[in-house]
Write a structure and sequence with these properties.
Layout lengths: L1 H17 L2 H8 L3 H23 L10 H27 L2 H8 L2 H13 L8 H19 L5 H27 L5 H22 L5 H29 L2 H7 L2 H13 L6 H20 L11 H4 L10
Helix pairs in contact: 1-10, 1-12, 2-10, 3-4, 3-9, 3-10, 4-8, 4-9, 5-7, 5-8, 6-8, 6-11, 7-11, 7-13, 9-10, 12-13
């Protein structure tokens, strides 16, 4: 239970950090694909240093083909998902993009039993419903005002982002059991940086200290530290419960916007945020269903130095 609490806390903190992503992306003043590229490129450097300091790089030669394939696919999904989401922000309202992007956690919760072969936990239905409805209440009124062809394209891109998120979580649970969070995060960011490099070379680079400073924070904090926390938590908690906790992100985004951008805090935002928080509280109180514990086999972790459990 201590490990589970630690995992829940890690995912929650990561979600809060990600809630400020849109702010730093806006402050950077760069094109969406440029923001994503520098975010993952800077994160790759920070995570490479982290992995070497902890000695986790020694595990790389021992990884099997299945794990290596999973790492490459994660990077491709990250490049596609973030590219789609950040572009969606420029084609439709942020509210619409956020709402559709959060179909992803619903897919994770629905598919977890089939992919991870753990018993379905029907208790997750109530907190998941609260989280989804709370998010809809927060962003729904704003999303109704978005119309036009560009809006439709933005909506489709947000759905693509949702699908890539769900696939990433499930692949991590299925193919990367026993691979340390540092290695997973590093490989994911590095592969995404390679994929996005051609686009970044053709677009204008960020300008000035505010632009580059925002990207450094996005890379080190939002893509480096936050993904380490997320993957560490994912090793200790069921994926369907993690799905509910990620709904903390839009609540955090609204709060950050109110505090730092002076955006008004509407009554429906407070109501929706309360529903999301209640869903997270219910998840924290669920406990582990009998017979569904997801432990990493000792044979897999015996050669992994300082795994995510040490974070």
């Amino acid at each position: 239970m201590h490990g589970r609490s630690k995992g829940l806390a890690g995912v929650s903190v990561a979600s809060i950090i990600w809630g400020s992503t849109a702010l730093f992306a806006r402050w950077s003043g760069a094109e969406p694909l440029v923001v994503v590229f520098w975010r993952v490129a800077i994160a790759s450097v920070a995570l490479l240093a982290y992995v070497f300091v902890r000695g986790e790089h020694k595990v790389l030669p021992r990884l099997g083909k299945r794990a290596l394939l999973g790492l490459v696919v994660l990077g491709l999904l990250l490049a596609i998902g973030w590219g789609a989401l950040f572009t969606a922000y420029t084609r439709t309202s942020v509210a619409t993009a956020v709402l559709l992007n959060y179909v992803g956690p619903v897919l994770v919760a629905a598919l977890t039993p089939m992919v991870t072969h753990v018993p379905s936990d029907r208790r997750i239905a109530l907190p998941l419903t609260l989280a989804l409805m709370g998010t809809a209440v927060i962003v729904g009124p704003q999303a109704l005002y978005a119309t036009g062809t560009q809006n439709l394209l933005g909506m489709l891109l947000a759905i693509v982002s949702a699908l890539t998120y769900a696939a990433s979580v499930l692949i991590t649970k299925r193919l990367l059991v026993g691979v340390s969070p540092g290695i997973v995060a590093l490989a994911q960011q590095a592969v995404a940086a390679v994929v996005l490099l051609p686009a970044a070379l053709r677009l204008p680079a960020p300008v000035g200290v505010p632009g580059w400073g925002s990207l450094v924070i996005l890379g080190v904090v939002h893509s480096g530290a936050a993904w380490l926390l997320f993957y560490s938590g994912l090793r200790m908690v069921r994926a369907d419960q993690v799905a509910v906790l990620t709904y903390i992100e839009p609540v955090a985004a609204v709060i950050f916007a109110a505090l730092l951008l002076a955006e008004p805090l509407r009554w429906y935002t407070v109501v929706g945020g309360a529903a999301v928080v209640m869903g997270g509280v219910l998840v924290a109180r669920l406990g582990v269903p009998p017979g569904s514990e997801e432990r990493v086999p000792a044979a897999v972790t015996s050669h992994v130095p300082r795994s995510g459990r040490d974070l």
